[in-house]
Design brief:
Number of strands: 15
Largest sheet: 8 strands, mixed
Strand order of the largest sheet: 10-9-8-11-12-13-14-15
Number of domains: 2
CATH architecture of the largest domain: 3-Layer(aba) Sandwich
Length: 488
């Protein structure tokens, strides 16, 4: 195996009170091998938790290789799912000690295999497994995280106070359901941050939540509401209920006809592009001029073997392993005003903004105005992030929400004075969460007949927030795109 030399944790070590050695000395057990386990394990590898055990007793079949994404990144795997995941996590982070164990938790005696785990995480959709693990955690006073997901929803319970145990913690409603890409990405990111808080709290306010909910069909997205207003019969046009996607086989066929343009191939783009490939988007064009650096690897998990390669080419190679039918055009250039000629010739169905500076973000917004192309913009800090969905004439633009023009002017002054921008800390968790939220909102642009209209407002992620993810809605709809009508 090619040995990576350098410090992949450089960007997260910039965070005040961060103790990477403490994470490297910690041990966690992950139970399950479904899509949710794939996202969680990739995030754990990026974070650098030193000892990881993966428990699952199922064999890896040809059909299983379509589940999640880690199985698709390499052609050869051991016969068991846990061992296949072990091999992939070793590739993502060679520093950690990971073991795949052929095991299932059916009875209390099954827990004899546990040793010195600091946290146990059950991400199966199996209430029996959760019951056994929960009993063990309570008996031994070990934190347990229980989580499940389906195609469009997921829940997390962080169990530290066992006096509050309830039957609902077993998540029996998810039994037998398939874990979806978007729900698994959001839930997996939330879990990984809660694990970090248990193992390495940064201050007294760095506390765990007790529970987290995601529901793509909820008006609030991250609350307990089960049915949003646009799906209620009395409020739906022509008194017809919109089909849920698990009942709607046309969804993937519709996405095959969609064309997405993405600016950036960094951390957000890794998880976004991965989701696009798994969802079956027809065509993706990606622009980025940067090369993969060793310091990218803590959060850009698809580049584990691509240090020194142009990011767009490394990303394209991995995406073609995941979805050979998707058309992918890598554009190894800096995104500048010269792309005006591109948008004159090509009209994507959606632009995805994953960049980390205001100047480029403002330029993307101007192209969205001028050519009236919907835009979803995402940004992250180590413990925060935001998503804005802009559809000209239907929602308020990114600039009106975040004042991109002012931010671009301030960046220009810094560059004139110092010659470069400050290197900022970055971790995998916020990027996984925000990218997955962007994928969810993307469906309101590309499939509004299923997922309803785009959200007019900003979705915020705050690692210390009571709900972790929240929505600040806007009552106004801007007309900024009208200023660009007729502009050449």
């Amino acid at each position: 195996m090619f040995r990576i030399v350098g410090d992949i944790y450089d960007r997260q070590k910039l965070i005040e009170n961060w103790e990477q050695e403490r994470l490297l000395e910690s041990e966690v057990a992950v139970i399950g091998s479904g899509t949710l386990a794939h996202y969680l394990l990739a995030a754990i590898a990026g974070l650098g938790i030193g000892k990881v055990k993966i428990f699952d007793n199922r064999k890896l079949t040809r059909a299983d290789k379509k589940e999640g994404f880690l199985y698709l990144l390499e052609s050869k795997h051991p016969p068991y799912r846990s061992k296949a995941l072990e091999g992939m996590i070793r590739k993502i982070n060679q520093d950690i000690n990971v073991r795949g164990i052929n095991w299932r938790f059916l009875y209390p005696s099954s827990t004899k295999i546990f040793e010195k785990e600091n946290v146990i995480i059950d991400v199966t959709n199996d209430p029996i497994s959760k019951s056994v693990v929960l009993e063990y955690g309570e008996k031994n006073n070990i934190p347990v995280i229980l989580a499940s997901a389906d195609e469009n929803s997921g829940k997390v319970y962080v169990m530290k106070d066992y006096s509050k145990v309830r039957e609902e913690h077993l998540l029996a409603e998810y039994y037998g359901k398939r874990q979806g890409i978007i729900a698994s990405g959001i839930i997996g990111g939330i879990i990984c941050e809660e694990i970090r808080k248990i193992l390495m709290p940064l201050d007294e306010e760095d506390e765990n939540i007790e529970e987290f909910h995601f529901n793509a069909f909820s008006k609030d997205r991250f609350g307990k509401e089960e049915v949003p207003s646009f799906l209620r019969k009395e409020e739906t046009e022509n008194d017809l209920l919109v089909e849920k996607p698990e009942e709607n086989p046309k969804e993937k066929r519709k996405l095959k006809d969609k064309y997405v343009f993405m600016v950036g191939a960094g951390a957000l783009a890794n998880f976004l592009a991965l989701g696009l490939a798994k969802m079956g988007i027809g065509e993706l064009n990606v622009v980025d001029y940067d090369r993969v650096d060793i310091t990218n690897l803590n959060r850009q998990v698809l580049y584990y073997d691509s240090v020194g390669t142009k990011k767009v080419y490394a990303l394209t190679e991995k995406l073609r392993r995941i979805n050979r039918r998707m058309i992918i055009f890598p554009i190894a250039q800096k995104f500048t005003s010269r792309f005006d000629s591109y948008f004159r010739k090509h009209r994507p169905d959606l632009i995805l903004d994953t960049v980390d500076n205001f100047r480029t973000r403002y330029l993307i917004q101007k192209f969205s105005y001028k050519y009236e192309i919907p835009l979803i913009s995402g940004g992250t800090g180590p413990f925060s992030g935001q998503v804005v969905t802009y559809k000209p004439g239907e929602t308020t633009c990114v600039n009106c929400h975040l004042d991109l023009k002012k931010g671009a002017e301030e960046e220009k002054k810094i560059l004139e004075e110092y010659g470069c921008l400050q290197t900022l800390p970055s971790v995998v968790t916020s990027n996984l969460i925000i990218a997955s939220v962007m994928l969810n909102e993307m469906r309101t642009i590309l499939l509004p007949e299923i997922y309803g209209p785009p959200l007019n407002g900003v979705i915020y992620y705050n690692s210390k927030g009571r709900k972790r993810l929240s929505i600040l809605r806007s009552s106004n709809i801007c007309r900024c795109h009208e200023k660009y009508k007729g502009v050449k």
